[in-house]
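Supplementary Text 2. Reproducibility record for the structural model of the 78-residue chain.

All settings were left at their defaults, and a single model was retained for analysis rather than an ensemble. We include the record here because the model underlies the residue-level annotations in Supplementary Table 4.
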Amino acid sequence: MNCPSCGKEMERGSLYTELGRGLFFLPPGGKVGFWDTKRSVEQYGGIVLDGPHHIRGSDRATVHGYVCRACKKILLEY
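Retained model, structure tokens:
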């Protein structure tokens, strides 16, 4: 896949987090509370990439995407 910003080849990979409640894209000022659900996050304009996780041991999130090392952009699939 070519980078939409600079046109160079992008590398496939994953964005990974551990010991968290999940992985979210939130509008400015947005926060995720411990008991929030996918529906409640989406109701205030957020996008759930993985999670939310409420049980210890299931608190790892992985989202696949691409990275352009030339212009430091990451594209994620959700």
